[in-house]
Amino acid sequence: MLELIDLKVAAPDGRTLLENVNLQVVSGETIALLGASGSGKSTLLRAVTGLAKVTGGDIRWCGASVLDTPPHRRGFGMVFQDAQLFENRSVAGNIAYGLEVKQADGSRLTKQQRQLRVNEMLQLVGLSGFADRRPSTLSGGQAQRIALARALAPKPAALMLDEPLSALDSDLRVRLAAELKLLLKNTTAIFVTHDKEEAALVADRIVRIEDIATQTAG
């Protein structure tokens, strides 16, 4: 279970952005976090992954605090709004990125193990045969699928998704939202959006940020 307990989050200049954040996400559950632009949804995700400063409260995974754990050791994946693929890597290279570091037990995957996992991810997101393509040749929807595959490849403990469909056209958003529901099955995830219909398609449960946090700045 992922727990946010009386969490307080600050901006780089020290201003408080969110406080009194309380949320529980059951293992294997995907929740949609709804809220207007600037309401602090992305800030909350960044705090969970260790990319935003926490000045109070706690973040717990399976009952243990992760506040003193560096971002790359928390085991939480992140999918951004604009995919943020590495242009100097192929599609396969992008997916393999998180598999190249040491595992939690200090071991490393072999090249063959990495290749097998990359192939599994390409099949999962419906892009088998795209391994050697460059990110610049992908459509918006394909790029987001690869970003999701890259995030899922290391088998993250939990996955944060920051409006990953918002830059796509409406028809494609609806189709990918339905696919995302299947891809996230049994994954502990927080899916940020401001679209109620999208939230209903993707999530097991919908939460409004104003119900779980005090927003003190845009």
Q: Could you characterize what this model shows?
A:
With 218 residues, the protein is an alpha/beta fold. It has one domain: P-loop containing nucleotide triphosphate hydrolases (Rossmann fold, 3-Layer(aba) Sandwich). It has 8 helices and 10 strands. The longest helix is centred in the middle third of the chain and has 14 residues, at 111-124. The mean pLDDT is 90.
Could you give me the name of the CATH homologous superfamily? P-loop containing nucleotide triphosphate hydrolases
Low-confidence parts: none
Give the N-terminus to C-terminus distance in angstroms. Answer: 29 Å
* Strands side by side in the biggest sheet: 5-4-1-2-10
Q: How would you classify the helix and strand content by structural class?
A: alpha/beta
How many domains, in number, for the residues?
1
What would you report as the Rg, rounded to the nearest angstrom?
17 Å
**CATH topology tier name:** Rossmann fold
Instruction: State the helix count.
Output: 8
CATH architecture assignment: 3-Layer(aba) Sandwich
What is shown here, in short?
Helix content is 33%, strand content 25%. It has 218 residues and is α/β, with parallel strands linked by helices.
